């Protein structure tokens, strides 16, 4: 018979799991909600504590000699830059009688081109009156400077035309003199020369008349430009509403804070690499999620929430007690990020088991969680790890320990040969979860399953492993090869270094018998 051994190819791990990222960011809603509220408060505080300076605004209609309908705003941008020069600022300061330097005054105002011919001047001051006065002085200075430049341009153009006309007149005088010096004769050559002089005289007369007309037009167009350039909206103070400014700044701060909080939460999630999905936690620990326990309700929680959490706690205790009774060797509860919750669960399980026989809780937690605590009469006995050897063999033992960083791994075997990991979702990173699985496998401790504390209620993944043994990776408790119907054996390998077990892809989640959470 020919046999073949196949192994499932490793599952491709995405560079960035968006599903896990969304769940992790949602779980850190405290951070981004706090950042949003903080941004809103800062925005409102800025509006109250740092109100804007009093300001005034004026609008000036600027008419250019070279105005064109298809102008892209080049001329008005030039006017804006001219407004921000020391010449305009100096003239405005002189009209105000202010000793302030033009360079300092230029920082208190700005120009904005609203259209191709409309310029807006915004000015700030120590008071509304000063701001209005500054705006008027700037507008007047700009209009006066613009009118002066238009006049100088027109005068320069007219002078150039008149100078050209005068040169033409001088040449015309020479032509007339040449015509007068010629005596009439019948010589054909002389007659042609006289005709040329007459033609030249006619051309000069025409050009002189043209230059006279152009010079007159240049002078006539200047008054139109001067009259068109004027202040169309007089300087006025800009009103400031504190409630409106506070509301606007608060809204802006809220949005910026929310965005910053989401970015920080996302970056922190990627950097920390703390699994929160059932699938990721099960894969990294090499054990299925057998139960879940919701987060303890807060003091101000509704009564129905407290009742639901209490019911879930009781059903979890019943489930774990049944698991401990069915085990032939001691069982331990090892916590990661939830020592207080694990201690309470261990005491509840011990109380249920005490009804059928003597039970001792072996406290292996690093802190004084159980051994030194006060207990009511009739409570199960709690001994420290050093006293575990003195416990009689016929007494059922329930170990409680920790797999947090700094754990003495060789001491965990004395708490029990089988264990249930009680893990808080999002507490340990992926590297440490895998370390926990490897260390438990090295110690020969079989992992029954994982109790997930504070799971995400909207986590769509299933924490049940599809293949592989129910122990940690690289452990000695590997599942033997199984035979198919045709007799071909398929070896199911445990998860090794760099390889993770796959999750059951299509198994629907069942409701937990102890809570409204889902059993994985």
Can you walk through the features of this model?
Helices cover 47% and strands 15% of the residues. It has helices spanning 18-27, 29-49, 74-83, 86-96, 102-105, 128-181, 188-228, 242-272, 278-285, 303-325, 339-354, 430-442, and strands at 55-61, 109-113, 118-124, 230-237, 289-293, 331-336, 359-363, 381-384, 396-402, 418-424, 446-453, 482-483, 489-490, 510-511, 518-519. The strands form 4 sheets. A 7-stranded parallel sheet has the order 5-11-10-6-9-7-8, with helices on both faces. A 4-stranded antiparallel sheet has the order 2-3-1-4. The longest helix has 54 residues, at 128-181.
Helices and strands, with pairings:
Elements: H1 18-27, H2 29-49, E1 55-61, H3 74-83, H4 86-96, H5 102-105, E2 109-113, E3 118-124, H6 128-181, H7 188-228, E4 230-237, H8 242-272, H9 278-285, E5 289-293, H10 303-325, E6 331-336, H11 339-354, E7 359-363, E8 381-384, E9 396-402, E10 418-424, H12 430-442, E11 446-453, E12 482-483, E13 489-490, E14 510-511, E15 518-519
Parallel strand pairs: 5-11, 6-9, 6-10, 7-8, 7-9, 10-11
Antiparallel strand pairs: 1-3, 1-4, 2-3, 12-13, 14-15
Transmembrane segments: 31-50, 250-272
Family: Belongs to the CpsC/CapA family.
Keywords: Cell membrane, Coiled coil, Membrane, Transmembrane, Transmembrane helix
């Amino acid at each position: 018979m020919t046999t073949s051994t196949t192994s499932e190819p490793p599952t491709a791990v995405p560079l960035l799991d968006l599903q896990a990222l969304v769940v992790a960011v949602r779980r850190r809603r405290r951070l981004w909600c706090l950042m949003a509220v903080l941004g809103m408060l800062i925005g409102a505080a800025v509006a109250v504590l740092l109100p804007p300076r009093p300001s005034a605004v004026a609008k000036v209609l600027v008419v250019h000699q070279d105005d064109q309908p298809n102008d892209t705003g080049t001329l008005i941008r030039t006017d804006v830059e001219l407004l921000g020069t020391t010449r305009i600022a100096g003239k405005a300061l002189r009209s105000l009688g202010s000793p302030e330097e033009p360079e300092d005054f230029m920082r208190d105002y700005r120009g904005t081109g609203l259209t191709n011919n409309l310029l807006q001047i915004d000015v700030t001051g120590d008071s509304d009156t000063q701001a209005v006065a500054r705006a008027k002085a700037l507008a007047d200075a700009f209009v006066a400077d613009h009118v002066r430049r238009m006049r100088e341009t027109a005068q320069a153009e007219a002078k150039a035309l008149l100078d050209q006309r005068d040169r033409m007149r001088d040449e015309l005088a020479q032509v007339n003199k040449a015509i007068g010096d010629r005596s009439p004769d019948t010589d054909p050559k002389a007659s042609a020369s006289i005709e040329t002089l007459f033609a030249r005289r006619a051309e000069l007369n025409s050009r002189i008349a043209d230059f006279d007309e152009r010079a007159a037009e240049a002078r006539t167009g200047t008054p139109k430009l001067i009259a068109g350039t004027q202040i169309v909206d007089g300087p006025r103070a800009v009103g400031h509403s504190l409630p409106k400014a506070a509301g606007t700044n608060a809204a802006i701060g809220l949005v910026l804070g929310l965005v910053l909080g989401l970015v920080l939460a996302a970056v922190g999630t990627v950097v920390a690499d703390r699994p929160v999905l059932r699938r990721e936690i099960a894969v990294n620990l090499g054990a299925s999620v057998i139960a879940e326990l919701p987060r303890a309700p807060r003091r101000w929680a509704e009564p129905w929430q407290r009742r639901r959490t209490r019911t879930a706690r009781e059903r979890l205790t019943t489930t774990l007690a049944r698991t401990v009774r069915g085990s032939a060797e001691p069982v331990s509860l090892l916590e990661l990020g939830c020592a207080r919750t694990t201690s309470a669960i261990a005491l509840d399980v011990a109380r249920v088991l005490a009804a059928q026989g003597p039970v001792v809780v072996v406290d292996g937690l690093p802190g004084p969680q159980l051994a030194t605590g006060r207990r009511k009469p009739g409570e199960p006995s709690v001994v420290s790890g050093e006293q575990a050897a003195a416990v009689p063999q016929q007494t059922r033992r329930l170990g409680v320990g920790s797999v947090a960083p700094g754990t003495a791994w060789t001491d965990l075997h004395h708490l029990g040969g089988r264990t249930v990991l009680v893990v808080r979702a999002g507490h340990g990173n992926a590297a440490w979860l895998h370390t926990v699985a490897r260390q438990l496998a090295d110690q020969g401790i079989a992992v029954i399953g994982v109790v997930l504390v504070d799971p995400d209620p909207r986590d769509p993944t299933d924490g049940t492993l599809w293949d592989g043994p129910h122990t940690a990776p690289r452990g000695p408790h590997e599942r033997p090869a199984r035979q198919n119907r045709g007799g071909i054996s398929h070896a199911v390998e445990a998860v090794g270094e760099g390889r993770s077990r796959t999750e059951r892809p299509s198994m629907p989640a069942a409701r937990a018998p102890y809570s409204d959470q889902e059993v994985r």
